[in-house]
Design a protein that fits this description.
Blueprint: H1 3-23, H2 36-47, H3 49-55, H4 57-62, E1 63-64, H5 66-93, H6 100-107, H7 111-150, H8 160-181, H9 187-216, H10 225-230, E2 233-234, H11 240-254, H12 260-263, H13 271-300, H14 304-308, H15 315-324, H16 326-360, H17 367-370, H18 381-394, H19 404-430, H20 447-465, H21 482-504, H22 509-521
Antiparallel strand pairs: 1-2
Helix pairs in contact: 2-9, 2-13, 2-16, 3-11, 3-13, 5-11, 5-13, 5-19, 5-20, 6-7, 6-19, 7-8, 7-16, 7-18, 7-19, 7-21, 8-16, 8-18, 9-13, 9-16, 15-16, 19-20, 19-21
Length: about 525
């Protein structure tokens, strides 16, 4: 290929991308540094399906066991593919970092629609903050769990202040890495490519290590296929029907956050074409790798009761130790934690772009301050520190509740699921003919409504059950505080709407000025400019 033609083609695409962004009222201030593969690597790592299933293995084993883990995953995967392609269609038509909230505003262009858009933006942003917090919480507990592997009597892992300090330390490290990595244009994409390759390689290493270890040791055995594919375990105290839905939390959490692509869409070329591909491919790759890894884990389990009631608090760590041994198992767990920390950096990257995008549209308090992109670091540094501080505050829950991880996990899954269903429902209510033209990915008039309704029903049903506590009538320390945390977030969001949001969200003077600047940069004069 002629290098000059290739450069010209890239320049033409850059002009098209900037013009598309200008049509939605924004100037191109972030560089389009990712390609389709680095974006897919980021999305695959943010989903982290197989490792997320491993981290949350306890939820699956106690809420349905192998049947829920495997066949619940199949159901959740089909439903999430429907949600992913529905979101991909919307993103292809309206590629902007604010994502779901902007789509609702564009489709439902009334005062009520703007309020719903504002709530969706808060819910989505809060979902990403708590998703980042959940990954940090997992890594906090896993790091402390390594110590418990060697000293089962060590009580430090269960002390709230120890967990809190480590949690805050990891949050600070993630924030600093995200700032430094943007200093040079290619560092962040290369970092995500490295984490993606490491993540895929570790999947192979863990799978082979478990299978070889169990197969080679005479004192170990594989579980029969009847256990792996057909055993029902209910240790929740709920009825089997409720337990089935509670067991879907593991699968839903492992396939949640594919909107990472949406909030990074202003950093990828040709987003109308590339973003939908990255979204549904990430879900498909995650579901396949997650199913395979769970099959391996279920076959390699030894003492099921010991795994569920492990001293470390993490069944996956006990499973690896039982199969491979203490020294080898600890070495693999350390590699697993190293990879999890890399995933956490990628999750925070996406979260920061959504925080910045929300501030850019005047949705947060002091939006003008937090929308600033530092020219030295080439990153929304203020938005990164803002969300870093808020995520650190979530760790205060360690000082008050024993079920902090469950609460954070549930809130992130609930919030993101609601933010997925809301724009799809808005599209169904206003009519698919209201979808703006220009998108390169379309579901069609016949197939589109079916896929959209499956997505909405799935989001509604799972959201209700994810508010349930782990057991009926639990003591205060074991309550699912997701509903309380989510409720506080809604109160805060409505409060800000009344005080400021209803006057400025998507209507501020800054937004109008940005549109004018973007139009001038693209050579659009006020006489022929569209009234956005």
């Amino acid at each position: 290929m002629d290098p000059e033609k290739n450069v010209a083609s890239k320049d033409d695409q850059a002009v098209i991308d900037a013009r598309d962004l200008a049509s939605m009222g924004h100037e191109q201030v972030l560089s389009r540094q990712f390609d389709i593969w680095s974006m897919l690597a980021l999305a695959f790592c943010v989903l982290g399906t197989w490792s997320t299933f491993a981290q949350d293995l306890d939820s699956g084993l106690t809420n349905g066991g192998p049947i829920t883990i495997l066949w619940g995953l199949c159901l959740v995967a089909v439903c999430n593919i429907c949600v992913a392609v529905s979101m991909g269609e919307l993103c292809s038509s309206m590629p902007t970092a604010l994502g779901q909230a902007y789509w609702i505003h564009r489709l439902w262009n009334t005062q009520t629609g703007r309020f719903v858009s504002y709530l969706c933006a808060w819910i989505n942003t809060f979902g990403w903050w708590t998703l980042t917090a959940s990954q940090i919480a997992f890594m906090t507990n896993f790091l402390l769990g390594v110590k418990v592997m060697f000293d089962n009597d060590w009580s430090g892992a269960s002390k709230g202040w120890v967990q809190f300090l480590l949690y805050v330390g990891i949050t600070a490290v993630f924030t600093i890495i995200n700032i430094i990595a943007c200093r040079k244009r290619k560092i962040l994409p290369y970092f995500n490519n490295f984490v993606g390759v490491w993540f895929a390689g570790l999947f192979v290493v863990f799978s082979l290590a478990l299978l070889i270890a169990v197969g080679a040791k005479s004192n170990l055995h594989f579980q029969p296929a009847s256990f792996v594919f057909g055993t029902w375990l209910n240790q929740s105290g709920w009825t089997d029907g409720v337990t089935w839905f509670l067991g879907l939390v593991q699968a839903a959490y492992g396939l949640t956050a594919f909107d990472s692509v949406i909030h990074m869409v202003e950093e990828i070329p040709a987003p109308r074409r590339n973003a939908p591909r990255a979204i549904y491919l990430a879900v498909a790759c995650g579901a396949i790798s997650g199913f395979i890894f769970m099959v391996v884990c279920l076959f390699c389990m030894q003492d099921i009761d010991l795994i569920i009631n492990t001293p470390t608090g993490f069944p996956f760590m006990e499973l690896v130790q039982d199969a491979i041994g203490l020294q080898g198992g600890a070495a693999l767990i350390v590699l697993f934690i190293f990879n999890g920390l890399g995933q956490g950096v990628s999750i925070m990257t996406t979260s920061s772009r959504l925080t910045w995008g929300f501030a850019r549209d005047s949705g947060l308090p002091f939006s003008r301050y937090f929308t600033y992109v530092d020219e030295t670091w080439n990153a929304p540094v203020r938005a990164l520190w803002l969300q870093g501080g808020l995520i650190a505050l979530v760790g205060v829950l360690y000082l008050f509740a024993n079920t902090v991880l469950d609460a954070i996990l549930s809130v992130s899954t609930i919030a993101l699921t609601i933010s997925y269903g809301a724009p799809i429902l808005a599209l169904l209510l206003v009519g698919r003919d209201k979808l703006p033209p220009g998108g390169e990915f379309r579901l069609g008039r016949r197939l589109g409504p079916v896929i959209n309704w499956i997505s909405v029903v799935y989001c509604a049903v799972t959201t209700v059950f994810f508010f349930f506590p782990g057991e009926p009538n639990p003591p205060p320390s074991d309550m699912n505080y997701a509903i309380a945390v989510f409720g506080i977030m809604l109160v805060v969001a409505v409060g800000f709407w009344i005080v400021k949001g209803r006057f400025e969200y998507l209507r501020s003077v800054d937004a109008i000025e940005r549109i004018a600047v973007a139009q001038r940069l693209e050579g659009v004069t006020p006489a022929n400019a569209k009234d956005y």
